[in-house]
Amino acid sequence: MSDHLQTALSLAATGAPVLPLRRGKVPFGNCPTCTDNACGGRPNMKTPGPCRCPAVCHAWAAATTDPAVIASPAWAAAWRRAVCVGYHPGGAGLTVVDLDDADAIAWARTALPTTRTVPTTRGEHWIYRGTMASRNAARPGVDIKSTMAYARYLGPGTGTLADLPDAVRALAVKEPSPMRPATVAVPAGTAGGECPHRTPAYLERGIAMAEQRITEASSAVHATVYRTFLAVLSRHGRCGCLTDLYVTRLFTAAQNKGETARHCADAWTNARTTLGL
User: Residues 263, 31: contact at Cβ < 8 Å?
Assistant: First the structure.
């Protein structure tokens, strides 16, 4: 039995739904049966659908405490490739405040009550008893992971669990921001004739750079995705370059970083609205 599988079984026994995470610390992608939502579920989404696929291919919605599922043949290949164990905090009645750097930790020490703390690669996880809506980039260097989200399991941590404070709940409330005219230039579309950007080298380089920007984001992933979509649309949004193939590549890169399809669609729509497309 692999160390990750043993850790997952031990964690599940405490009531925390678990799942394997692959390289990049992201969930495994959909199996062939579930690809492109063919199963009727909502793969890798915030809202689980009716799919009962035995594979671990629906991100946080696949997390389970059932040892028979965790150690099943359907999950075996994923555990062999897993780089760490993930869990669904909301399913365990918990909220993880993911502090990504020293500045975020300093803020938490003055703004939040002490609770169980787990060291991470660059920062800390502060874990509270109670659930709430999850939110990426709740403030600089701070992500909230609770319902409909996953977090890495990095050990039991130290300290006593505190109840989820209102100060954390308030971070999930998004204040509406006024629409502002875009400051980026939007190229005029071509009225007939060939699109000036539709050359293999130019377009491929732009999409590849956008994918790389999203993939390399270490924090504020949702904001990075939006800004990347905005940049791509500002250059190609009115000239006919962006076929479904390229849009799918951008969405896939975002989902591989943990974004949901709904978040991708919202970011894309917001970027188009900002640019007046």
Answer: no
Instruction: Report whether 238 contacts 146 (CB < 8 A).
Output: no
Give the model confidence (pLDDT) of 168-189 as tens digits: 988 887 554 443 433 333 333 4
Give the model's confidence band at 1: pLDDT under 50 very low, under 70 low, under 90 confident, else very high: low
- Looking at the chain, how many residues does it have? 277
